[in-house]
Amino acid sequence: MDLKKKRVTIYDIARALNLTASTVSRSLNNNSRINEETRKQVIAKAREMNYRANSLASNLRKGKSQTIGIVVPRINQSFFSNVIAGIESITNEKNYNLIICQSNESHEKEIKCVNTLINQHVDCIVISVSAEGDDYTHLQNVIDHHIRLIQFDRVVEEIESLKVVNNNEQASREAVEHLIKAGYKRIALLAGPQNLDIFRDRKAGYLKALRANKVPVADELILDADSNNEHDAELIRSLLTLPNPPDAVFASRDDFLALGVLEVANDLGIKVPEQLGICGYSNENFTRITTPSLTTIDQYGVDMGKTIAQTYFELDDKNDETAIEIKTTSIKPKLIARASSQRK
Amino acid sequence: MDLKKKRVTIYDIARALNLTASTVSRSLNNNSRINEETRKQVIAKAREMNYRANSLASNLRKGKSQTIGIVVPRINQSFFSNVIAGIESITNEKNYNLIICQSNESHEKEIKCVNTLINQHVDCIVISVSAEGDDYTHLQNVIDHHIRLIQFDRVVEEIESLKVVNNNEQASREAVEHLIKAGYKRIALLAGPQNLDIFRDRKAGYLKALRANKVPVADELILDADSNNEHDAELIRSLLTLPNPPDAVFASRDDFLALGVLEVANDLGIKVPEQLGICGYSNENFTRITTPSLTTIDQYGVDMGKTIAQTYFELDDKNDETAIEIKTTSIKPKLIARASSQRK
DNA sequence: CTGAAAGCGCTTACAG
DNA sequence: CTGAAAGCGCTTACAG
């Protein structure tokens, strides 16, 4: 006993107007040569009957969905929500839809998201991979199903796709040189999960900065933080209570880790920035409002998002699958020097 | 010249196995009485051929999409991202998909989001309306198209749908009574846009608290803040520089406004909490880390999200459209008293 | 347990 | 400019 009334279809409109579904469809999509009079009638009747197109049907027929799927670790981190906003600003004009999914940093969930998007026949999948995991056949799968793949920020090098990234190595190098210039001598690195390229690059930038400035590299000052905030405090505490502790920390994983450093330092009675300099990564909103405010690196998320969408539409215009250059677009991030890294 | 190879369909699998599409479909959906041997063969072959179901087709055929659409003002505000996380935790188990849209506080964009979701044939739309706007025919439209509508937090009373809300009046009353008990005497209210129920309720709670405690109501201490952060600073400055200024502010719109109060106070050299008490709303992540930390109200976003999803599935189980009670579930929010409201 | 057939709501060559 | 017909990839009553 299904009481649901059925929705109005183009056939209902056609019947009401003594036309065929073909004509109704053409009128609604203001496509080919249609009598202007007919079109107006159809549009009016459609409105009157409160008609809504069935995207499932039209997408199935057309073989494309005008939809872009986005997979990010977390939608509520500034960087990712900025990228999403950037993408949206472009797709809105083009009347494309966005399906946003979050992997919650779980590799398993990420695979699920990607598979769902493949099933939904999205035209493009935009992804920044989760910290876990090392098997990327699900990304290859996207390509194999003829869906455009665009990776950003946390990209998997060996998967051949369009990529939009920051120059992480350079930004990290600048950040560490900034700390050196501020007079810090024992600069620790809290690195992100080293299975991801971006975090390896940041570590490389750190090492280059030290070497270029003849600052000795101390292995005990280099620690890997996983993506799980719960373990941050212990890790930081172990670092700051070393017999010969650091006088600065570059929390290259993200600002949440930098905030953790600030909090543990407060806890231990270590003065920031006098006794300890801190630099984070990502320019999260909160970095501006801590005391002292946190030095960090802005990744230009909105610009990255726009670039991603533009890249997609450029290729879509060409529509020539053989000619895709697997190009990587790099955006230069910017050091935001604030109080946490400036000794009086 | 379309070079796209076509995807594998159930017909391809059927052909490879000398079966019919019917049998393949049944095997893949492990539905009815299918020979276990056949099923195993089909599954194996599907995997071998890298088959992916076409959700567009199956949803079109089934007339439902196992998808829930969510429309929120902003995905990167703690409260909304918590609600989304809560919904996700339930829908994940049930293998439902989520389409997340943000209205960016624009009424026009909200209408566009809702219409897109209607066209996509989602089974349910979960929405918290934007601050702008007073015409809600787009919500009525959802119902008219036999899509389940669930409103939360910022609900429109006159639209008959399921609603999951906080008791805003009570929470606000408690917040203001907390300020009174802390010794503040001239408590200002920065209210949110008064076209929305929740902000009217919060104002009502404020007024009740004052009256119940025989604190005089001063009209010049009650200001409406719109949803646009850009105007906050001026508004706050005008309030704090009154000839007879307030000694506390309840920023009932949200914590961003409370943060603005803290910043303007710092600017003006007004000491918080000694000279000025502050209370915000929503328990944004950053409220914990300001100096002083901000008193606020936790809305239990994750719980609200879970309740929303559970409510949907309960009704879905009944599947009896006539018997829907248009019930409203209310969740009691909780005052989080921190340093910004506690005089030494 | 399996097959043949219809149909979900569209769009689009093909005719006229 | 409009119509008739096929088909997108599935699912599901109806037979057997």
List keywords for this structure.
elongated; LacI/GalR-like_sensor (chains A, B); homodimer; DNA-binding; DNA binding (chains A, B); Rossmann fold; 12 helices; 434 Repressor (Amino-terminal Domain); 3 domains; transcription regulation (chains A, B); 42% helix; 6-stranded parallel sheet; transcription (chains A, B); 4-stranded parallel sheet; 344 residues; Lambda_DNA-bd_dom_sf (chains A, B); alpha/beta
Summarize the structure.
Chain A is an alpha/beta fold.
Model description:
Two copies of one chain form a homodimer. Chain A is an alpha/beta fold. Chain A has three domains: 10-53, 434 Repressor (Amino-terminal Domain); 65-165 and 301-330, Rossmann fold (3-Layer(aba) Sandwich); 168-299 and 335-341, Rossmann fold (3-Layer(aba) Sandwich), CATH 3.40.50. Chain A is 42% helix and 15% strand. Chain A is built from twelve helices and twelve strands. Chain A has helices at residues 10-17, 21-28, 36-48, 55-62, 78-93, 107-119, 137-144, 168-181, 197-212, 232-240, 255-268, 301-318; strands spanning 67-72, 97-102, 124-127, 148-152, 162-166, 187-191, 222-224, 248-251, 277-279, 296-298, 328-331, 334-336. In chain A, α8 packs parallel to α9. Chain A binds a DNA duplex (16 and 16 nucleotides) through residues 7, 9-11, 19-23, 25-26, 29, 31-35, 38, 53-63.
